[in-house]
Amino acid sequence: MALKIGIVGLPNVGKSTLFNALTRTKGAQAANYPFCTIEPNVGIVEVPDERLTMLTDMVKPEKVVPAAIEFVDIAGLVKGASKGEGLGNAFLSHIREVDAICHVVRIFEGGDIIHVEGSIDPKRDRDTIETELVLADLQGIEKRIVKSRKAAELGDKEKKLELQASEKIQKVLMDGQPARAAQFLPEEVPVAYNFQLLTMKPIVYAANVAETQLSTLNADQLKTQLGLPASADLVLISAKIEEDLQDLSPADAAEFLTSLGVSSSGLDRLIRGAYHALGYITYFTAGPKEVRAWNIPQGFTAPQAAGVIHTDFEKGFIRAETIAYTDFVQFGGEAKAKEAGKMRAEGKEYIVRDGDLMHFRFNV
Q1: Model confidence pLDDT, tens digit, residues 102-114
Q2: How many secondary structure helices (H) and strands (E) does the chain include?
Q3: So what's the pLDDT on residue 1?
């Protein structure tokens, strides 16, 4: 199943234009007025990975399956969305269904594109959206505290744990911080994630810049401008340029990017940024019938990784025959890597590493 990233932001910041470019379609209306996207548009995109290309060239399989991310274009939020303004309740429910958030912030100037607030102020815009998410979560968590407190006081251990996590979340939300900023005990973490709070979701920022700003601005400058920590995932992207690139051949697109002073598509960097924000890694299976990239959360064991292919693989797991990607390439494939002693038999405790090539042995 593809990971789901919700594209959010104020109206007219370039969300639908970005979505069109991401999915190589014209499926989302891009119009110069708020709420042109009422129902969320959905598109599946491949995760760019040069390793998959290399493996395909080496193995020459019948079929190639890349890792994928599902992007959901969600209508523009406005101030008061947590109270139902601007169809806010429906839009917030769409965000609740995704795995992570891509927050598009408008940096570009442009008198012909109307800004819902009447002026360009990226820090204000970021605060507006994230305040609405915090307020929506605060409403939900306060109701949860009321419900769980009585049962916790009567000795219900599960509700006591739920109350502990809820109160920690309430505290950070009251301070205007996202729920993910709370410091949880290990046993509270799964409880907190089960709440499905908007501000527990990972977030990647897409700074939508003008063509002329691509070579003059950098991510560190924009993080400071937006009030973001240095560790935040932020990608500079010109949504309009990326959409225009879809009409060019690969060679012409590369030449156009070079003329702008950038070396790669902002879309590729954004997709990778979303993947990173989710905390996912990729492992590969490679054979004459298929070369495939599988996305898994970082920290998955070999049996859990096998279960992504089929639940029977996890239930009957025996071992994982594993070769590191670099060894596979260096020695020219599985047979020679195995001869060189680079194939490892990994057991149930093995933590899968990014780029591992794996073959699972199992009993049905």
Answers
A1: 999 999 876 555 5
A2: 14, 12
A3: 56
For residues 167 and 180, what is the distance between their CA atoms, to the nearest angstrom?
Answer: 13
Q: 311 or 150: whose pLDDT is higher?
A: 311
3-class secondary structure per residue, the chain? CCEEEEEECCCCCCHHHHHHHHCCCCCCCCCCCCCCCCCCEEEEEECCCHHHHHHHHHHCCCEEECCEEEEEECCCCCCCHHHCHHHHHHHHHHHHCCCEEEEEEECCCCCCCCCCCCCCCHHHHHHHHHHHHHHHHHHHHHHHHHHHHHHHHCCCHHHHHHHHHHHHHHHHHHCCCCHHHCCCCHHHHHHHHHCCCHHHCCEEEEEECCHHHCCCCCHHHHHHHHCCCCCCEEEEECHHHHHHHCCCCHHHHHHHHHHCCCCCCHHHHHHHHHHHHCCEEEEEEECCCEEEEEEEECCCEHHHHHHHHCHHHHHCEEEEEEECHHHHHHCCCHHHHHHCCCCEEECCCCECCCCCEEEEEECC
**pLDDT at 141 (0 to 100):** 95
Strands, E assignment, 14-134: 41-46, 63-65, 68-73, 100-106
- 236-249: average pLDDT: 82
User: What integer pLDDT is reported at residue 80 of this predicted model?
Assistant: 60
What is the pLDDT at residue 26? 44
Residue 127: exposure state from Cβ atoms within 10 A (0-12, 13-18, ≥19): middle
Residues 142, 207: Cα–Cα separation, whole Å:
33
Of 12-21, 174-183, 284-293, the range with the lowest mean pLDDT is 12-21
State the pairing for strand pair 41-46/68-73: antiparallel
What does the mean pLDDT of the chain come to? Answer: 85
